[in-house]
Amino acid sequence: MANVTQSALSDTVKTQYERRLLTRALPRMIHGRWGMKARISKFGSLEFRKYSALSAITTALTEGTTPAEQSSPTITTTTVTPLFYGSWLGFTDEIEMTAYDAVLSEMSSILGEQCGLSADTLVRNNLVANATIDWGANQTAIGNLDYPAHEISYSDILKQVAALEANSALPVEGEDFIVIIHPHAFASLMADPTFVNMFIQESPNSAVRSGYVGRLLRCQIFVTSNAYEYTDQGAGSTTDVDAHLFIGRESYGTVGMAGAEVNLMFDGQGPEGKPLTGQQIKPVEIIMKPVGSAGADDPLNQRGSLAWKMTLATQVLNSSWITNLESVNVFSDD
């Protein structure tokens, strides 16, 4: 007797799936949080200006004699021109009519995440390239860095903080400088007994929400997997090297054009790309062109699109107030 089997009626047996979509892998996007933010409207560029400080007076006044007039302070100008960036995805009328998932909503989230990641990466690349470079373990070039001899340590952080202080850098948050490191470097630091004994660790939720893991030597330490890594640029061209940023106040600026500037406080680290901070912040507005909006270019009303567009420029304004520490960690030879 023939039986009705799954093989015979395979199309009738459907796989149940979880409607709640899995979280996408996103780094914490933090590099642009502490820059001087500016926007321009009806102009193509922005000029940052800075006056030099006057030196100390160490000669006493002579009775009845007016001292010579001070030389006028010099002014340094930096011109920044925002550039346009954007991306888009197309969709068809059949997707709207047949897809079980809320495809357009999900596409919007994915594009928003891409915009936030793009902005964070653009800021990061500029800071790494234009900050004052130093190397861990008192090395003098990136090619010298080898694991484990030159693994990042408490003494490396102490040296960078001392350099900022010696250059009269001002703190960013209250009395603290900002340090951005890769999770691999944080793993190495947590194995350094001096670091661990002095490190004031925050609650685990703070790292999940904002990347802030704790405080040391007047520094607030943030971790992000979007920290810059130099692949195979250490010793023997086989060792990975991380870039760690030490940031003082007004060390860099970010500029966008009104109406298309990007929000660098974008938070998409929650489930399904939703914010963890409770603030519904998007990097930019998503541009939606519905099916049929293209006129004669879409005669059968078959196509629509979702897109984002932003303007952004990043400029290091004082390289002595921001340091790029290049060092290795416990994962460098993996």
Features:
20% helix; 334 residues; capsid protein of prophage fold; single chain; 6 helices; eight-stranded mixed beta sheet; five-stranded mixed beta sheet; alpha+beta; 15 strands
Please characterize this protein's 3D structure:
32% of the residues are buried. The termini are far apart. This protein is α+β, with helices and mostly antiparallel strands and 334 residues long. The chain has a domain at 138-251 and 317-327: capsid protein of prophage fold (2-Layer Sandwich). The strands form three sheets. Strands 5, 6, 7, 8, 9, 10, 11 and 15 form an eight-stranded mixed beta sheet that branches. Strands 1, 4, 12, 13 and 14 form a five-stranded mixed beta sheet that branches. A hairpin with a 2-residue loop joins strand 8 (212-216) and strand 9 (219-223). It is built from six helices and 15 strands.
